[in-house]
Amino acid sequence: MSFEKPLTIDCHGHYTTAPAALQTFRDAQVGHFDDPSKPVPAHLAISDDEIRESIEKNQLKLLKERGADMTIFSPRASAMGHHIGDRLVSRRWARESNNLIRRVVDLYPAYFIGVCQLPQSPGSDMSDSIEELERCVLELGFVGCNLNPDPSGGHFSSPPLYDRSWYRFYERMVELDVPAMIHVSASCNPAFHATGAYYINADTTAFMQFIEGDLFRDFPTLRFIIPHGGGAVPYHWGRYRGLADMLRKPNLRDHVMKNVYFDTCVYHQPGIDLLFRVIQIENILFGSEMVGAVRGVNPETGQYFDDTKRYIDELDLTPEARYKVFEGNARKVFPRLDAVLKSGGR
Hints:
This protein is an alpha/beta fold and about 350 residues long. It has one domain (about 10-345): Metal-dependent hydrolases (TIM Barrel, Alpha-Beta Barrel), CATH 3.20.20. The chain has helices at about 20-35, 50-55, 60-65, 85-105, 125-140, 165-175, 195-210, 215-220, 235-245, 250-255, 270-280, 310-315, 320-335, 335-345, and strands at about 10-15, 70-75, 110-115, 145, 180, 225, 260-265, 285. It has a 5-stranded parallel beta sheet. α5 (about 125-140) runs parallel beside α6 (about 165-175). The longest helix has 21 residues, at about 85-105.
């Protein structure tokens, strides 16, 4: 196999630039829930031209400028809002959001492929999420999902991810052969800034929960991506190795790291350097979350913080390692993506 010119597959993209009509629909939906005398929004009205304008001036433009080839694309994470409304509100909102992602993919099939939002709601079981996962994978052609470990929006009231209340959903993930990216939504807890604290808290907490449980003994082929560079995990790798020993768990390589992967949404060179020194190449997927949490230019470099490919290009990687980070690991973690690429001769 030649590793000289890998595809550059961005595993972490959100539709943060969706047309304003999407938020108008959401406001009307939540408004009706809060006050039933207000009308229920009948449908989401967005034209193909509006989608083209929102994508071509933003994600697609940056994808091409920064040298990437494809983005694994999902609804805006901070807008999932699982803590808002009830299970029926979450179910319709997820469905409308996922249908919009499918329309983006239909318009730009060479550049985007879908990952779905789930209709999680505090206190509800995962039945609605199983149904939506099946619809998105089997009918819409999506290749994974975003799983919120804390639908409460910052109060962490759900059982840990190794709890058996999650198992029915995991069973369906395994049957469909799709991974989940761990991703919380907006924070309704003022103690947690959404992207600066809450996201990183959840990423780190999820990893510790994987250590505490024996989830991957029960589901040896289950796969998770922990975004934002794995939260605090790479920086505190010795702590987690030591805690695993204290909890009498196997070595992390066997206990967790056959099933858990980190992306490269780390927005400075020293952070990327650390990630690659600590975490094995086989467990790193290229991701940028561009047009996301950090959109500005770093005054020290003159480059956008979220242009993460630039940081990886600075690393002294072998061609094989570079292939794994940019393409091979994504094909492994997302087998349905791999099948789509092969069907297109890529």
